[in-house]
Amino acid sequence: MSESTASKQTNGLGIAGLVIGLVALVFSVIPLVNVIVPFLAVIGLVLGVVGLLRKSRKKGIAIAGAVTSLAAIFSSVAFASIYAESFNDAISTDVEVIENAQSDSVDQGEAQASEGTRDNPYPMGSAIKFGNDWEITVGPSTLNANELVASENQFNDSAPEGFQFAILTMEFTYVGDSTGTPWTSVSVDYVSPSGTTHSGSDTFVSYPGGLFSMNELFPGASGTGNVVIAIPEDGAADGVWRIQPLFIGDGVFFSAN
User: Fold this and answer.
1) How far apart (Å, rounded) are the C-alpha atoms in residues 257 and 254?
2) Whole-angstrom Cα distance, residue 86 to residue 190?
3) Distance (Å, rounded) from C-alpha 24 to C-alpha 38?
4) CATH no. for 95-255
5) How do the domains of the chain map onto residue ranges?
6) Model-level pTM greater than 0.70?
7) Do strands 163-174 and 134-142 pair parallel, antiparallel, or not at all (unpaired)?
8) pLDDT digits (tens, 9 = 90+) for 171-188
């Protein structure tokens, strides 16, 4: 067989389709990344099919490329569904009142149905079961913590004009089946009476016991973290704190103080 004949029989498109299909198949099992795998696998599938239709080319490698790419599509869809279900379970925002700070005699079923909204927030100091994995006690809060923040670190910036630093302390207890880290599970912000939202990323200050300093917790373990947010001075006490899942889901609200 001459060199030119051997070259004719080489199926470049089939090889490309197989390589892309194998790469897509590997990435199809990786969370989040597998969302884009079908787009990559479709390219591999098209190359494999075109390579299969070309005359005087080896068909086997083109078939392998098409089959591998097709398998990557099915694999990515299957694993994405599994991960989405697990993710939804992990970030469930079902809320159960453990202790209402306003009244020990409150009907907890009624409290769960009527409280926790922006218009009717949970009292500061209340404890809730948040989703499937966390019990959270919210409070105390310090709404004017300018002096505390300034004394903690001389390099901390002052609050912007018309704002003041507020500190919210929370206790997290992990009640799930594996392990959890608070700052990878929930986010915290402040909603002013006028409806503007403010988070810790608006300004950057150093303060001990920050939420990001909390380590991984095993079942039954607890930890305390602080959130520092610059909030509007006007009507500060009439605003609310909001706790919500880090990525997807509705939040629950607590009185500002």
Assistant:
1) 8
2) 29
3) 8
4) 2.60.40.1240
5) 3-90, 95-255
6) no
7) antiparallel
8) 999 999 999 999 988 999
